[in-house]
Amino acid sequence: MLSSRAATRSRFVDWTAPFAIALVLLLAALVLLPMFRLLMTSLTGEARQLTLEHYHQLFADPAFVKPLLTTLWTSAAVGVLCVLAAAPMSWLVSRTDLPGKRLLRTLILASFVTPPFLGAFAWVLLGGPNAGLINQWYYALFGLKPFEATPLINIFSAGGMVFVMALYTFPYVFTFVANSLDVIPSELEEASAILGAPAWRTALDITLPLVMPALLAGFLIAFLQSMTLFGTPAILALPAGIDTMTTKIWSLFQFPPQLGLAAALSLPLLLITVLLLRAQSAIMGRRGYSVIGGKSTGTRLIRLGAWTIPALALFAFVLGSSIVLPYGVLVRTAFVKNWSGPVVGNLSLEHWRFVFFEFSQTRLAFQNTFVLGIAAATAGTILVTTVGYLSLRKLVWGHRYLGFLATAPVAIPGIVLAVGLFLSYTQPPFVLYGTLSIIFLAYLTKELPVGYQQIGASLKSVHPELEDASRIFGATRLRALFDITAPLIRNGVIATWIFIFIGSIRELSATILLFTARTKTISVTMFDLRESNDWGPIAVLSITMLLITFAMILLINHFTDRRLT
After folding, report:
1. Do 267 and 396 share a domain, yes or no?
2. Is the pTM of this model over 0.85?
3. Which of 7, 48, 146, 330 is 20 to 30 A removed from 376 (C-alpha atoms)?
4. DSSP H helical ranges for 229-336
5. Same domain, yes or no, for 58 and 86?
6. 298 in any annotated domain
7. What is the pLDDT of residues 281-293, one digit of tens each?
8. Which of 501, 503, 497, 513 is nearest to 559 (CA)?
């Protein structure tokens, strides 16, 4: 009898608390260890002594101060451009009778999911000072000669970099403001219209103050996103001799590597990122709206009338610059022999044949990309599902630490994380550099916040009483998660897997410091092809990546639209 009871107790031992401790240690190793190594390396001199030498050089040498200043003013310019474009666009789709609003929102989503470095590649083909198609049309229209006349557009400049980064960052601001307008009742605006105020006056005096928190938060996120980008500055600014903080960190890894300076330069970028995210959270955390006096009657749409054409022109310019022209020039370049020549008599499948049948790096790049994407998505989904369940349900002591560590990587720029991982895993006891494992750790860590947020939304749709019922029958917390909760949030789990997979296959900022000849991915391969101006193969790989991304987006829509509630 006693042995039977002992067996019963051992069979129902609750391993939840030890498992939670193990998860905390795992997340700490993923997130905190690279940051610790980053800090210690920045404070260590050549003689292995503690010193502030690297920071002194960082803030005294113009070669480092100038990239910092360039990063700050270009990021601020991107934020301003995004607000100027996205604020009226979000107001038009939320508060007016603008035609085709559903299609316009879909196209903005396409801008959102397009990797910025692909947009930069496309704008080299469009706005290159001599061979860019827009400049070619300009020269032909006015009978000018390339190399002699001033180009209409010179994309290889700080202004060109700001323009292209804004094209793929404005959706952040649009999403913040449009979502804010969707939840703000329109009674005040309707009262203003009843009292005779014109639509523009109502927008400035009533709507703008209501959405100001969302605008400020969107500006900060746009600033942050542009500040941490590597691909666009490397493609558009470096050829003009302009460095940003991310490209400067990358250059410090070229032979001979200057790891102490790279670590010291990474920490200000990390600090600025943390401060911006804290400010954004504080702004959005104080936002609140309430309706006094009854139920909202819905939004009364403003008739644009004669302003419909200018409104559509705004969308045409922004979406044409971010989607239509870039996608068009990539497709054109992929199917012609000479990308700068006319289409007539120039059509060919040569670049497709070269990429998929002759280019020796293609197979390895696709293999590495999909192995890393599948591995990071699978491990990340299992990890965030377990962490999300334990932390959001507040089932264990230290659940706050789990939630903090799972969301902390959102404050770590990709290239900063790569520096930390490089410093952590290029020496014993764990030498991972030169293997896919170190890139896998980068992807897994970087995508944790996205997965955690997605799983959190799914878990909130499942009432804890269902799990409590399983506990009454003797199931442990972990058994309840896998037998009860996981099947109920199946669609959310699948969507999380796809989100992490998409983020992994398009990653460049972290990969650029961690790859070797045997661990190249598709994005790194495209970046390498840029140095030899092989724009046809770049276009083929770009289209392939976009097709994979949009196929995954369709799958996300399929599963999220059918999520159980």
Report:
1. no
2. yes
3. 330
4. 231-232, 245-251, 259-285, 308-319, 325-334
5. yes
6. no
7. 887 665 544 444 4
8. 497
Q: How many domains does the chain have?
A: 2
Q: Is 58 exposed, middle or buried (0-12, 13-18, 19+ CB in 10 A)?
A: buried
The angle subtended at Cα 281 by Cα 279 and Cα 284, nearest 5°, is 110
H/E stretch holding 427 reads: strand 426-427
Domain extent, residue 185, equals 52-287+307-348
CA nearest to 404, candidates 388, 425, 427, 423: 388
Report the candidate in 433, 456, 460 with the shortest Cα–Cα distance to residue 515. 433
Q: Could you tell me whether strands 426-427 and 430-431 are parallel, antiparallel, or unpaired per DSSP bridges?
A: antiparallel
Do residues 397 and 421 lie in contact, with contact meaning Cβ atoms separated by under 8 Å? no
In CATH, what number is assigned to the domain containing residue 523? 1.10.3720.10
Half-sphere exposure (Cβ direction) of 281: Cα atoms closer than 13 Å: 9
Are 314 and 89 in contact, with CB atoms under 8 Å apart? yes
pLDDT tens digits for 41-71?
999 988 788 899 999 999 899 999 999 999 9
If asked whether residues 420 and 366 sit together in one domain, one would say yes
30 and 146 inside one domain? no
What is the rounded CA–CA span in Å between residue 385 and residue 380?
Answer: 8
CA distance 399 to 393: 8
Distance (Å, whole) CA 505 – CA 497: 12
In this structure, what token pair is assigned to residue 318? 């922004």
Cβ count within 10 A of residue 340:
16
The alpha carbon dihedral of 431, 437, 439, 444 has a sign of negative
